[in-house]
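Exercise 3.2. Students should predict the tertiary structure of the chain below and write it as structure tokens, then compare their answer with the key that follows.

Predict this chain's 3D structure.
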Amino acid sequence: MIQHCEQSHEAPGSVYDRARDSASQSCNAEVNHIRQFEQFKSTASLKFKDDCLTIPPLDQLTTSSSEQQKKNELTAEQKRLWWDVDLIDKNVLKPNDSAQFKADMKTFEKRAEEQGLNTEDVAKTYSQVSRILEAKGDRPLAEKDRVRAALDIMAIAADPTSNNQGNHNTCNVTALENRIFTRQPDVAAGLIADVATSGKYTAKDGTTVSLDKESLTVQPDAVEAAKQPRSENHRNYASQLFQVTAINLLYERDPQTAGKLHYSQGPERTPGPPGGSDSTADSAGGTESSPTGEKLMKGSTEIKPSYGGDQNPEYAQKGGTVQDVVDMNTMITGKYEPKAFLQRKDMANADETRGNSVGSEAEFDKQLTELKDSGQLPAVVAVDIANDPFYKINQESNEKRTEQEKASGSPPRTPPGMPPGRPPLLDMSTLQGAGHFVSITSYDHEKQELTYKNQEGSDQNPQKPVSVHEFYESMTVAKASDWIDRANNAYDRVQQLHNKGKLSDKDYRSYLSEYASDLSQIMSHYSQLWENQQKDVPGTPGTFDQVDKERATQKFEQALKRISPANVE
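Answer key:
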């Protein structure tokens, strides 16, 4: 800092006085020089303090000028976007939508400040949203649909991890979308703005995707999301556009499928429960029987994708591996960030060269610590939700929902094949495949605890941090012995209810038969899995676990002794 200090001295004309006068002249010349530049006028701080004139150095003034320019740009975009919303308020927006939109802007700016996002990135995000609102005409989207996309973008930007996959097998791109919105909201908003205004998107590597008419249509799940703002059980429209586009980047990048196959989002065929399990191999595709409305199309014809070990590489489903998610991130952001996309080494395919494969709990801890310290969270991580804590949280959620249904007097939902009004003995929905992606949002190395976001719904998230040990164990295939333990525990509860007279003999016998059937399904599934693992069949998850096989076989034989010979058959 340059300081000119006025002090009194008894000897006028002293050496000090002459030096002071010379310094004053130099100081005043510097002030005049600064004032000649328009950009310095608003940033120069000329203050007297204790008889000292303080002037910031030129390099500080230059920096301040640059920062002020960015703030001015942000203010301009804020006003522009505010004005855009006001213009459409009366004719298009639903009651309270405008107020919510503006509240989301404030929340977004607060998050950006706390997180340390660049002011420029916030301004660019606003610019992308304004681009949507200022578009004219009804193609590729009608005005009301464009407005819907704009509202949704701001909702996600305000709270990126609140976004949800709804009733769709898109955990992979939902986790990716949440990460990009957290770190580069302008990039995510730009993708959606391109699609909303032109129907297509060109990635950083030049790959161009055009969405079909169905994928551009606001589908039922997005309609429900619009009815219930901030719902974490439905996927909003902006996310629909982002996710379908992201998956199609993989198809257009591959010369074998470019221009031939595309992933499409049609109407959901049944309402279905919120969220739903995702197979890693099935996390971005669907067939005609799928309730999610997701389809793989060859022209105008729906086809069945090829998964894992299926011998049909031409129709291989894309998007289900960590490597695929890394590639989508690179194409969208222009950044190669493989360390932020984690999986266990025993779950990685042999040909996967991109992604962060960890081989031990200690290595997992090290990678999370590095990601946190370098500001690279959230991380996208592949897990198996047939493991705890995911399985346990899902069961608790189901039980809570059942109690709520009983309290309201409505009959509980009954799975297919079950007697009306009777819940199943054991939730077996994740037995056949439970690959899933979630986002790790924070990590505490000292406590060895992490927090994560499960995009399947708000009721699927833990109420407190999870130990790194439990989470690491959830990143591999669930054990057969754990499944048999669950079946035994479920049967024990039924037996106790029957002994207390709270369960009829008829229902008890029905549950006993179901118990035998569940045991059979568990061992049949794992027998095939173990065989495929030992033969290294392509697409088979995990590695062969001899200890689990022996333990499961022993528990299975013990369980059979609890069942009469007739029920065993």
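Discussion points: The chain has 19 helices and 14 strands. Residues 480-569 form one domain.
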